[in-house]
Amino acid sequence: MEPFVLRGPEATLSTPTPADVDRVAEVCADPEIATWTTVPSPYSRADAEGFVTQMVADGWANDMMFTWAVRPPGEVDGPVLAMMGISRTVGAPGEDQAGEIGYWTAPDARGRGLTTAAARLAADWALDPEGLGLVRLQWQAYVGNWPSRRVAWKLGFRSEGTLRQFGLQRGVLRDSWMASLLPEDPREPVEPWPAEAPRP
């Protein structure tokens, strides 16, 4: 599949380019991103180059992983504020297919609803029969990643519980939350699964 742009009133999603390498390297050095994602840690500029020029390009070329840089609305080449990805996980062409959504947000772009808006654009495309046509989109995060969980909850993902020792992070299995979104599900919170860390 050829890369394309997703546009919304709050964000523009376009593929990262070599011009974004320094920004990706800067953001992925953030300790929060290292804690909650599978990016290499410590993260180097070479890691960013490999991500942009190989991993992203191969994902689109193989029709398996679709990655966008999240930028300000109307700015196809604007600064990278977050990263958004949809990957196929189950099924072959002609069969029912499932996929997974993943994202990270730069420290200077957190707390303003940007990731939720971008994830909504990506999820709508992934579940649209005229888009990727998935019949199930799943979200998973390591237990304790409340910002990621809030985004999934706002989009209408339904909790499927905690999977013990499920998510692999740099050679270590960690407990993970799992939730799913189906094409017919409303894109708004539909159940009272906690979206905030419990108070001590």
TrEMBL record:
Residues 11-183 form the N-acetyltransferase domain. PROSITE patterns: GNAT (PS51186). InterPro entries: Acyl_CoA_acyltransferase (IPR016181), GNAT_dom (IPR000182), Ribosomal_N-acetyltransferase (IPR051908). Gene3D superfamilies: 3.40.630.30. This is RimJ/RimL family protein N-acetyltransferase.
